[in-house]
Fold each of these.
Amino acid sequence: MLFQPINRNYHDFSIVRDKDACINCKVCIRQCAYEAHYWDESRQKVMHDNAKCVGCHRCEALCPTSALLIQKKQSDFKDNALWKPEFIKYIYKQADTGGVLLTGMGSPVGNIPVYWDKLLLDASQVTNPSIDPLREPMELKTFLGAKPVKLEFTKTKDGSPKLKTKLSPNIELNYPLMFSAMSFGSINFNLHVAMARAATELGICYNTGEGGLHKTLYQYGKNTIVQVASGRFGVHRDFLNAGAGIEIKVGQGAKPGIGGHLPGEKINEMVSVTRMVPLGSDAISPAPHHDIYSIEDLHQLIFALKEASEYRVPVSVKIAAVHNVAAIASGIVRAGADIVAIDGMRGGTGAAPGMIRDNVGIPIELALAQVDQRLRDEGIRNRASIVAAGGIRCSADVVKAIALGADAVYFATAALLAVGCTLCGKCYTGKCPWGIATNDAKLAKRQNPDVAAKKMVNLVHAWGHEIEEMLGGMGLNSIESLRGNRDKLRAVGLSDTEMDILGVKHAGR
Amino acid sequence: MKAPERYYDFQKDISGCGVFGVIHKTRGLIPGDIPIRAMTCMHDRGNGLGGGFAAYGIYPDLADKYAFHLMCDTQAALDNAEEVIKHYFTVHLAEPIPTRKNLAIVDPPIVTRYFLTPKKDRPHEGRDLGEQDYVVSAVMHINHKVAGAFVFSSGKNMGAFKGVGFPEDIADFFRLEEYSAYIWTGHNRFPTNTPGWWGGAHPFTLLDWSIVHNGEISSYGINRRYLCEHGYLCTLMTDTEVVAYELDMLIRKHGLSKEMACKVFAPPFWDEIARMPKQEKEAYTALRMVYGQALLNGPFAILVADNTGLFGLNDRIKLRPLVVAEKDDMVFMSSEESSIREVQPELDRVWMPKAGEPVIVHLEA
C-alpha cells in the first residue's frame, strides 16, 4: 500500500473483536453508521476497518455476545510536549483536505481550568441546623425575567394584601434548570418531542434552538423558549407567539463570533418546512445578525420581538462568554433584555471549527461571576435574570453556578448524554449512530421519544434531589437564598486574581 | 453603590443568643429592673462576649432630638467624631453616658451621648437628602470614616446600651436600673468567632429601629450583596446588621408595612401560596419574586422595636425559640418562658408563635 496516506494509520480507535465470542450476526454492521464493520465475502465473516471507527461505542453496546471492545489506539507518537498528538493529526488532516477542522460537542482541551472543580460548597455544623429535604419543604421554584426594584401593596377590607405594582412577564420554572438550545435539524424530531414532553412534565423550559418549531410541538408552548438567531430560520408571527419566552441568539459558547452551518444532508422534508428553507439546501446562519451591528440595533430587535409578542413574554439575549462579557451584558440589559443567557467556552455544539471551539471565549464561571457583579454594581441586576450555560455536568455545577449568581442554568450535552450520546463528537457528519444528531430516518428511529423523555425527566429529578440535599446541608430551604450567595463557595488552588474575579474566598478562610 | 474592594473578605459572625422584649401598649413606663432580671435568668444563653439593651421613651424631655450614643476607643477618636457631628448637626446637649465601674467590664470605651437636630444650613453633601437619609449618612460617615468611633444608637427618645460582657454586667455598667421605658429589648450573646468588639453586640440600631436577634442567617451572603446594590454597606461582620438595613429599606424606603416586611423575611412556602385565594396568591408570588434576595434563610428569632411598637418573628420553619405572653397592657417576647415568668409570674396568655408568623404589637397613639 505505497500510496496510503499517513492519516490511515493515525486514527483514534481500535476495534478489538473476540474471535471466539463473535457469531458473525452482523449486528455491528447494521449499527455502525460509519461502516467500520463490514461483511467480508471471501472470508465469510465480519471484519472491521479501525480507521473508520469514531469511538461511539454503539456496536460494543449492541453486540449480543459482548465480543467487541473499542479502545484508544495503542500506537503512540514520539513524546513531544509541544507537538501533542492532536496537533500532528490536525496537520495531516488539513494537508489532505485544505479545509477548516470541523468538530462536534464541547471543547475537550485540558489546559483551560474547569473552575467548578476548584470550588467547594459549605455545610452547616452546630451553629445552624442543616435541613433534611425529605422531611422539610425545600424550594427550587425560579422566575426568569425583569423584576421591579420595589413593590406596592394595598390592603383590602379583610386585611389581606393586594398587589398594586404591575409585574413584567416572567417564566416560571419548577427547577432552576432548562434544556439549552439545540435546533430541530441539528438534532432530530424525536428528541425535540422528548425535550418538549420532558420540560412540560418537569415544569421547566426547553429551548427550540434556531431551527424554528414544528407545528405539532406548539402544544408544549408553555414550556418552550423560541429562539431567533442570525439565520432567522422558522421565525414568523405564530412562532414568536408559541412559547413562554423568546431568545435572541447572538452567540454560542462553542463558537463565539461565527455563525452556523446545517449541511443540506440534514435538511429533510420536516426540517425544510419548519426552517422555511428549501429541501436539501444548506442552512447557513451568518456570523452576526445583519440587523444588529451595534447595541442600539439589538435594542430595536428586542422591542420588535416584544411588539410582535405583545409584551406577553420575556425576551432573552444569549451571548457567548467573551472578554468584555460584563460590559456587553450590561448593555444588553439596558437595551431591554429581560434575561441574559451567557454561554461559556466549554459549551457544546453540533458543529464548530476546532480552532474556534478550543481557543475563543472564556470559561462560564468567570463570565458569570463578572456579569452578576457588574449588574449589581450598576444597580440593574433586578432588570434581568442571568442564565448560565456551557459545560454544566452535574447538580454540583448547577449549585455552584447559582451561588455565583445565576438565576438558572441551561444544559444540553448532559441531556443528550441522558439519552445515550457518548460524546464521540461527530455530530456534524449527520450520521449519529445513537440517533441523536441525525435526520436519517433509519438512525433517528433509534430514539424513542417516550423513552428519551423519561430519561431526561429522570435526570432532572435526580439533579433536583441532589440540589435539595446540598441546599439543606447549607441550612437553606429556598433556592433564592443560594442565588448569588458566594459565602457558600470556597476556592481551592486558585490565584488571588481568580478568586477576586469569582468573588470567593480561599478554602480555610 | 459599588461593592467595597475585596467585599468577599467580609466575614459573617456566627452566634447563638437569648432575646427578651417587653412593651407597654399604653406607654406605661417599665422599670429597667424588669428586662435586666429577665436577661439574667437567661444567663446561660450567652458566653459573656456580648450583651445589650434598647429602651424607648427614656428621653422624654428631648424627644424631638436625635439621640446619638457614641463609643470611642480614645479621646482623639471622640474629638474627631464630634467634629463630624458638629459639621452635620446642631448640638443641643452633649454629655457622657452615666456609667458605673464594675469588675466584669474590662477596658470599656468612652461612651458619650449627643442630642441633635440637623443643621438649618446643611453642608453641601447632605443638602438634597431627606432628613432621615441625612441622619443615616452622618452615622455611616462616622462609623466608616472616623477610626475608633462608632455611633451605636441614633433614634429619637430611645437608646441602645451594649458592650462586651454578660447583659447583667452591661446593665450594671450603664446603670440601666435608673431608666424606665415603654419598650425594652435585651440581648445575650454567644458568639463563636467574633472579635470582642463593643459595636458588635446587640441591639443593632439604625434611626429608631433596634433589633435583637438570635440566629444565624445562612442567606447572609446574598442579603449583603443585595443591600450593597441598594447603597447599604455592611461592615459590622454581623448578620443582624443585614436585618436592620433590610427593615430600613423595605419599610422606610419602599413603604412596605411591617406585616409585609415580615413576609419578606419569612415568606410563605410556594405550596401555601398555591392554596391561597387569587389576590393573595398574586401578592405573595410577586413578593417572593421581587424580594427573594432579602429572604432571611436559616434559624432566627428576632425582636424589632421602633417608636411605634414591637414585633417578633421566627424563621419560616421555627428553628429558634420564641415565646410570647400577655399581661394586661404588657406584651412579653422571649427566648424562654422562664425569663418572662421570672419578672411576671401571672400571665393572661402565653403562646408560641408559629413559624414565620409575625407578632406585631403597636403602641396606642
Amino acid sequence: MSHEKRTLEFYVLALFFALFVLFLYGPLSAILILSFQGPNGGLTFPLNGVSFHWFANLFEKQAVGDFGGSFRRSFVLGLMVMVVTVVVSLLAGLAFRQKFIGATPLFYLSVASLVVPSIIISLGIGVVFQQLGLKPAWYSSAFGAHLTWTLPFGVLIMFAVFNRFSPSYEEAARDLGASSWQTFAHVVLPMIAPSLIGVGLFGFTLSYDEFARTLMAAGTYNTLPLEIYGMTTNVTTPVLYALGTVTTLFSFLVIAGTLGAIVYVGRRRARS
Amino acid sequence: MTVAVDQSPAASIRLKAGRRGRRLDSNIVSYLEALPLTLILGAFLLLPILMIAVVSFWDYDFASMYPDFLTMNYVETLGSWVTWKTYLNTLKFALLVWMITLIAGFWVAYFLAFHIRSSAMQMVLFLVCTVPFLTSNIIRMISWIPVLGRNGLVNSTLIEMGLIPAPIEWLLYSDFAVVLAMVHLYTLFMVTPIFNTLMRIDRSLVEAARDAGASGWQVLTNVILPLAKPGMAIGTIFVVTLVMADFSTVQVMSGGQSASVALMMKNQMSLLQYPAAAANAVVLLALVLLMVAGILRVVDIRKEL
C-alpha cells in the first residue's frame, strides 16, 4: 500500500461509499424524525408540530396491543438464545478442532440451518409441536426456532477463530504444567473472549429481531417483532414509527454496550 | 497458494492431537462437545423438515389433517399456473437483488479493503455498514414508507424541483419497492464475505502486477476479481437463499400486489392448509438446496473461514 497520492478511483469510490451509507441510514432517520410528529400529524412529512404524543401513546396498552409484554418476552428470549448460542458454539468450535466421525455432516448441517428458508423451519416446528400434542410457546418452540438461526453464525465464527488459533500457546501452558482445564480457562478462554462476546451480540440481536421463524412457533403470546409485523397492516398512525425508534435505539444501545465490552476486555488483556 | 497457508494450522492441530497419544480420550471429549449442537439441530431443523416431508403427503380439510399417502398436494401445487408464475416472480426478485447486491457489495468491500489505509478506520467504516443489519428488518422496511410514499420525501422533492408534474405512483407498493427494500436489507450479506476475502489477498501480488506493468484496471480484473470469487460465492448463497425465503418484504413493500413462494406458503398456512404448504415447502427447499449445491461447486466454505 504505497500510493502516495489519492487517485481519481479513490474519490469516485468514496462518493459511492458515502451514498451507500446514506442509503443505509437515510430511511431510518426519516422514521426517527417522524416519530416526533405532532398529535394531528400523519405518516409522511411534513412535521405537523413536534411532540412526544406517539411515544406516550405507545405505553397505553389498548392503543398498540401489548407492547410492554412483547418487549419483555423478546428481551428474555434474546438473553436465553444468547447464552445457549455462546456455550453451544464454543463447545462445537472446540469439537471441530479434532477429527471425529460425523464432523463434516455436522458442519454441513449447520450451514443448512442458514440456507433452509426460515418459513419452512417455522412451519415444520409448528407441525411437530402440533403432532406431539405440545403447545407452542415463545420459550419452547420459538426458542428452538431462533437457535436454528443464531447457532450457525456462532459455529461459523468459532470455526474461523480456531482456524487461526495457534496451538503453541496451549503447548507452552502444558509444558509449564497446566492441566487441560487450567490451559482452557487461563490461556484459551481469555484469548477468544472478544470473539465470544461478538457471538453473544449476534445471538441476542438476531433473536431480538427475528420473526419469520417465530411466525408459526410463538404460540399465544407474541414476541416484539411479531407485534410490529401485525401493526404494519392495521396501524396507520406515527405510533408505529415511535415503536420503531424505541426498538432501534434499544438495538443501538446493545451494540454500543457490546463494543464497549470488547474494547474493555482487549485493553485489560493488553495491560496484563 | 492462500489455500495452503490456510490449511496448515488446522492440519498441525490434528497432527499434534494424534501425536499426544490420547486419541480415544480426546475423541470422547469431541463427541461430548459436539453433542449439544447435534441435538438442537436434530430437534429443531432435521425433525421439522422430515415432518414437513411426511405431512406433504397427508390429506386435510378445513379443520385438521389426516395421515395418508396422497400425491394430491403436489399435483395441485405443480399443476397450477399460479404456482409457476409465483416461482418465476420469486426467481426474478432473486436475480435482480443478487445482481445489484453483488455489484454494490463488491465496490463497497473493495473501497474498504484497498482504499482505506488505517486498519482502525477500516474497522470503524465496516461497523458503520454492519450496525443497521443488527436492527429490526421490519422497521427498516417500514422506514421506506415516508420516503417513497405518494406524499413521501422523493415525490415531494421532485415536484418542488419541478421535475415531475404529479407524484410517481410506482415508487411504493410495487416490484421496484420490493427490490429496493431487499437490496437495503441484504447488501451487507454480500459486503462481509467479499471484504473478508479481499483482506486476505497478499498485497505483494498487487505490487508484483504493477511492477510487471499492469494498469489499475488490469490489476482489478486479472488479480483482485479472480481472488474475490470465493467471497462473492458465499455472499451469493446468503442473498439468494434470503430472497427465495422472503415473504414479509414482498408483502409489505408490494402492498399485496406481488407474490413470492414463501408468501404463498404463508397464506396457505393461515388458511390451515398445512399439507398444501408442506408440499410447497418441499419443492422450495429442493430448489434452494440445488442452487446452493451449484454455488458450493465453486467454493469450499471450510477453507474460506
